[in-house]
Automatic annotation (TrEMBL), chain A:
The chain crosses the membrane at residues 6-27, 39-57, 63-83. It is an enzyme of class 7 (translocase). Belongs to the complex I subunit 4L family. It comes from the Bacteria. This is NADH-quinone oxidoreductase subunit K. The keyword Oxidoreductase applies. The keyword Oxidoreductase applies. It catalyses: a quinone + NADH + 5 H(+)(in) = a quinol + NAD(+) + 4 H(+)(out). One of its GO terms (biological process) is ATP synthesis coupled electron transport. GO terms for cellular component: NADH dehydrogenase complex; plasma membrane. Keywords: Cell membrane, Membrane, NAD, Oxidoreductase, Quinone, Translocase, Transmembrane, Transmembrane helix, Transport, Ubiquinone.
Automatic annotation (TrEMBL), chain B:
It comes from Gluconacetobacter liquefaciens (Acetobacter liquefaciens). It catalyses: a quinone + NADH + 5 H(+)(in) = a quinol + NAD(+) + 4 H(+)(out). The keyword Translocase applies. Belongs to the complex I subunit 6 family. The chain crosses the membrane at residues 6-22, 29-51, 57-77, 89-115, 135-156. Keywords: Cell membrane, Membrane, NAD, Quinone, Translocase, Transmembrane, Transmembrane helix. This is NADH-quinone oxidoreductase subunit J. GO terms for molecular function: NADH dehydrogenase (ubiquinone) activity; quinone binding. It is a multi-pass membrane protein.
Length: 103, 173
């Protein structure tokens, strides 16, 4: 079996998702947590592309476009919240202090 | 050997993702994060999805990462932030998350073994942008509209959250 098969791509997606989840769980900096979420979204997109290649369907790339727009909106809103936290007097970006956000 | 690009891109992506998660300096993590979508674009290309590969380069490695670069520039992180990150990244912190992620990895790998392998002959026929576009503006036109709604909602909420960010407006200490 060829090494570039969709099954191996799914393995890579699994590994990337686990690494991103490790980052979300272990890091305390909100910026690094957002970066780890980006890695997880990339892994999900790779899973869709691999499934599309496995079953010869273009629907995988359609779902990839949906994930892409989701990631763009998520990055914009998340980074705006991070800037808001930073300017509101919590420059450490500790995720434990996020409960005092208001407005 | 045609599998070599896939293996190389996969190794680069996995290594860059691990480096993103373990860096103490945010700028270093961000630079490794730029490598992840670039190498994943190569993986998409070897999987026969050139349209998705180009979109990954343009939107992920271009637009989204530029947003991250701007925010890291505006946060003005310094030496004290790096030392605090090192303090937060004590080895005892990593035990529980590593166990959970490892369990998830093992469970997903076991699940993946049940997928029957493809026939190698017709595996890598590329799916071009024409078929994707025909699907997007045919049966999936409603989800395209929903994606545009999502982007509009993201725009409006980012504007709402980010306005008066220097404390001159209402509700700001």
């Amino acid at each position: 079996m060829s090494a570039a098969s969709p099954t191996h791509a799914l393995l890579l997606a699994t590994l990337l998702f686990a690494v991103g989840m490790l980052g979300v769980l272990a890091r305390r900096n909100l910026l690094l947590m957002l970066m780890s979420i980006e890695i997880m979204l990339n892994a999900a997109a790779l899973a869709f592309i691999a499934a599309g290649a496995r079953w010869h369907a273009a629907q995988g790339q359609v779902m990839f476009l949906m994930i892409l727009s989701l990631a763009a909106a998520e990055a914009a809103v998340g980074l705006a919240i991070i800037l808001r936290l930073h300017s509101a007097g919590r420059p450490t970006l500790d995720a434990d202090t996020g409960n005092r956000l208001k407005g | 050997m045609s599998d070599l690009p896939f293996i190389l891109f996969s190794l680069v992506a996995a290594w860059a993702a691990i480096m993103v998660v373990t860096r103490a300096v945010a700028v270093h993590a961000l630079l490794y994060l730029v490598v992840v979508p670039l190498s994943l674009a190569g993986v998409f290309f070897t999987l026969g999805a050139p349209f998705a590969a180009m979109l990954e380069v343009i939107i992920y490695a271009g637009a989204v990462m530029v947003l991250f670069v701007f925010v890291v520039m505006m946060l003005n992180l310094g030496r004290s932030d790096r030392d605090r990150e090192r303090h937060w990244m004590a080895p005892a912190v990593w035990i529980g998350p590593a166990l959970l992620s490892g369990l998830l990895l093992i469970a997903l790998c076991i699940t993946l073994r049940t997928i029957p392998p493809t026939a190698a002959s017709d595996a890598m026929v590329p799916i071009g942008p024409q078929s994707v576009g025909l699907l997007l503006y045919g049966p999936y036109v409603l989800s395209v509209e929903l994606a545009s709604f999502l982007l509009l909602a993201g725009l409006v909420s980012a504007f709402h959250i980010g306005r008066n960010i220097r404390g001159t407006g209402t509700g700001e200490p």
